[in-house]
Design goal:
This protein is α+β, with helices and mostly antiparallel strands. The chain is built from 25 helices and 15 strands. The chain has helices at 27-37, 132-143, 148-158, 166-176, 215-228, 244-253, 263-274, 281-289, 291-314, 317-327, 329-352, 372-387, 398-406, 417-420, 431-434, 438-450, 453-467, 501-509, 522-526, 529-536, 569-577, 585-598, 600-607, 610-620, 637-646, and strands at 42-48, 57-62, 83-84, 92-97, 104-110, 191-196, 202-208, 237-240, 258-261, 354-355, 561-562, 649-653, 659-661, 676-681, 686-688. The strands form 5 sheets. Strands 11-15-14-12-13 form a 5-stranded mixed sheet. Strands 1-2-4-5 form a 4-stranded antiparallel sheet, covered by helices on one side. A two-stranded antiparallel sheet has the order 3-10. It is globular. The two termini are 42 Å apart. It binds a DNA duplex through residues 43-49, 51-52, 54-55, 57, 63, 66, 68-69, 71-72, 78-86, 125-126, 128-129, 147-149, 166-168, 170-175, 179-180, 184, 264, 268, 484-487, 489, 493, 495-496. GO terms for molecular function: DNA-binding transcription factor activity, RNA polymerase II-specific. It comes from Citrus sinensis (Sweet orange). This is MULE transposase domain-containing protein. Pfam families: AFT, MULE.
Length: 689
DNA sequence: ACTCCGGTCATTACATCGAC
DNA sequence: GTCGATGTAATGACCGGAGT
């Protein structure tokens, strides 16, 4: 099973039904452990035990499958800033007990995910769960006064794939009511250099033991730091406490960086050192009003004071230093490891979780590409913009108000690249100057040329996705809606109808999702022709599927008709619309191929380049029933063909996009002579109006 | 400011059951 | 045999306070 990131491999043949026979007991998790390590988390969706005459079975899905179920009572706003990870991932496996013995068969129902594999498993709650064994270990260690940090470190050492975070440890300990008595670490560090991730977490860059806080010592420390940093990774902003020797050293070693003083340090020092100089509170008040100036004036003196007291501390220092040198190395290592786990978890959460607050469309382009913290900041700004009148741009962020007024999403490019960095890979700051994508492009071209036609189509789709970042194949999460109660079955009975291939291709073209079913599962659909009949024979009152169209258009939709859901459904729709009956879909395909070939120049121009022309030709050139999905109709390209060929005005209506195709080759006639056909595409069907 | 952790809410994993 | 709806326990995650 190599089902990664969407629809990569094979495109037609009967495949999968990968039957793995396993021992009954360990059937579920054994196999899935491997998946976990591939960065995909598999959970049990539901199961049936051997009761009521049922055969035992287990359905596995991806942790991101399904939709969010809102259980919160309508009314008060949620208290906690939480989010969801569900994105309707279609991945599904079925475990079935064999009739003859205790073995289990694992059948792949859908081997594709509609989201990329995760980079780290930290931050994925299910993956971070403690196993029975681990939790026993935790209890033991807690009883022995081992600190949470150290417990986590031990767990990580036991199993390198462990994805537990410190939170899980806290929760588990509380559950067991084990209190820890362990004292604080004896280790004290003199100089700690930390960095900040896009998710607002700090991490240790290095720890330095200094003999004393003198400029030369700092210079040495910074030199070492510079030595281990890449040339292009030098910091652009450095925040320090008001340590003059350090400031001087930084100026010498990092001349390009902006040095900022940490305000917290300043105010704390001011408070600690200056307040006692004043007899009454009133004088102190006047002092604090201009404290900024005074701090600067008083700094030299205060610095000398601190240095003096520090030096007296250092008289005791050598013994501590010896101890640290001998025993603290592992502690530093543990500390760093835990920080890394936290950072990984925060990055993953930013990538997969969508907080309820971030559902408005203004965040559309940012979700899952930008750190959550940045989104929170933007949300705050955006609320501030709301509270101001539209003309006031004096404070807050005028850009956000502007985007909101225009009703367009905040573009990803408007954010600083630091906030977009959601991995631990190195970056080259001078990307625009030194980086070139040509070698990679050439590799792609080579691979493209070596591939067969279906693979070429795949590659092209992927490339288009890359070229247009807004069209991620991640599904936009559902807006929290009313999901309670079982919907009435009266409206229509086709709730269990399999999605048509047409829909998957269209949604793929739209960049929102990937075909949820591999072609092999088609056999499942075909076994149930009666279901399709049910769809067709439904009375049209009220208009079925009406809720699946944009609300603004609904009043104008008078009726809808469904067609058979094979890979030709798009062409069936057109055939029925032009009056030749849906079963003559093959003629539509032939007509469109003719059209395409007769006007080669025109279409290469229209479609942009010859590759897309070939792709379209390949798509149309199939006259077998149930074609593989690279022969399914895609929009908008086929839309032009239909409008031109049949001289009609074509409308495409869907939640994702509504398009109109005009027949541009013919001379416009009187209005009454216009022939309009409308194709809708929705959740699982498509029909005519 | 930072760490730890209790209290509590929110989300999810999973089982069960009825309808088709 | 299959699927969807739904109840519910488990558990992850957030908030805020105490201590350092």
């Amino acid at each position: 099973m190599d089902e990664e990131k969407g629809q990569t491999e094979e495109s037609g043949k009967e495949k999968v039904v990968n039957v793995a026979l396993m021992e009954r007991e360990d059937m579920p998790r054994e196999e899935l452990q491997t998946e976990l390590r591939n960065g995909l988390v598999i959970v049990i969706e539901k199961s049936d035990v051997a009761a009521n005459g049922r055969k035992p079975r287990i359905i596995f899905t991806c942790e991101r499958s399904g939709v969010y179920r809102d259980r919160s009572p309508q009314g008060p706003k949620p208290i906690k800033a939480t989010g969801i990870q569900k994105c309707k991932c279609p991945f599904k496996l079925k475990g079935q007990k064999m009739a003859n013995n205790d073995d289990w068969a694992l059948i792949v129902i859908c081997g594709f995910h509609n989201h990329p594999a995760t980079q780290y498993l930290e931050g994925h709650s299910f993956a971070g769960r403690l196993s029975k064994e681990e939790s026993n270990l935790l209890v033991d260690m807690s009883k022995n006064n081992v600190k949470p940090k150290d417990i986590l470190h031990v767990l990580k050492k036991r199993d390198m794939h462990n994805a537990t975070t410190i939170r899980a440890i806290y929760n588990a300990r509380r559950k067991c009511k084990v209190r820890e008595q362990a004292g604080r670490s004896q280790m004290q560090l003199l100089m700690k250099i930390v960095g900040v991730t896009s998710t607002d977490l700090t991490f240790s860059v290095c720890c330095v033991y200094l003999e004393s806080e003198r400029e030369n010592n700092y210079i040495w420390a910074l030199e070492r730091l510079k030595g281990v940093m890449e040339e292009n990774m030098l910091p652009s902003v450095i925040v320090i406490d008001r340590e003059l020797a350090l400031m001087k050293a930084i100026k010498k070693k990092f001349p390009s960086a902006t040095t900022l003083l940490c305000r917290w340090h300043i105010s704390r020092n001011v408070l600690a050192n200056c307040k006692k100089l004043f007899e009454t509170n009133e004088i102190w008040e006047t002092f604090i009003s201009s404290w900024n100036l005074l701090v600067l004036a008083a700094s030299e003196e205060e610095f000398a004071q601190r240095l003096k007291s520090m030096e007296s501390d250092f008289s005791k220092y050598p013994t501590a230093l010896t101890y640290i040198r001998n025993s603290s190395w592992t502690k530093v290592h543990t500390l760093l490891e835990l920080q890394l786990v936290e950072i990984k978890a925060s990055l993953e959460r930013s990538l997969t979780m969508v907080q309820h607050d971030f559902k408005p469309s203004i965040f559309k382009e940012l979700r899952e590409f930008v750190a959550m913290n940045a989104l929170t900041m933007i949300l705050d700004e955006s609320r501030r913009a709301d509270s101001l009148s539209p003309d006031v741009f004096a404070c807050g962020s005028p850009e956000i108000a502007e985007y909101k007024r225009e009703g367009r999403p905040i573009p990803l490019s408007s954010l600083h690249s630091h906030r977009k960095k959601l991995d631990l890979l190195q970056v080259n700051q001078d990307e625009s100057k030194t980086l070139s994508c040509m070698p990679e492009i050439e590799m792609i071209v080579k691979r493209f040329n070596d591939s067969d036609d279906p693979a070429k189509v795949q590659l092209l789709r992927k490339l288009r996705e890359l070229a247009n970042p807004a069209s991620t194949f991640l599904l936009e999460p559902e807006v929290k809606g009313k999901t309670r109660g079982r919907p009435s079955l009266k409206a229509y009975t086709s709730a269990r109808r399999n999605p048509s291939k047409f829909e998957y291709v269209l949604s793929n073209e739209d960049g929102k999702s990937i075909p949820a079913m591999p072609s092999s599962t088609l056999s499942l659909q075909l076994k149930k022709p009666q279901k399709e009949k049910i769809c067709q024979s439904q009375p049209l009152k009220p208009v079925p599927f009406i809720t699946l169209f944009p609300s603004g258009i609904r009043p104008y939709i008078r009726g809808a008709k469904d067609v058979a859901a094979d890979g030709n459904c798009g062409f069936r729709t057109v055939a029925d619309l032009i009056g030749i009956g849906e079963d003559n879909w093959a003629r539509v395909r032939r007509d469109l191929v003719d059209e395409l070939q007769c006007h080669y120049n025109e279409y290469t121009l229209l479609l942009g380049y010859a590759g897309r022309y070939q792709e379209l030709l390949h798509l149309l050139s199939n006259f077998e029933p149930n074609p593989s999905y690279d022969h399914w109709m895609i929009m908008p390209n086929t839309g032009y063909l239909i409008a031109f060929k049949y001289n009609v005005i074509g409308l495409l209506i869907s939640m994702q996009q509504c398009l109109t195709f005009l027949p541009l080759r013919s001379i416009p006639g009187p209005r009454s002579s216009h022939k309009i056909i409308a194709i809708g595409y929705i959740y699982g069907c498509h029909f005519i109006e």
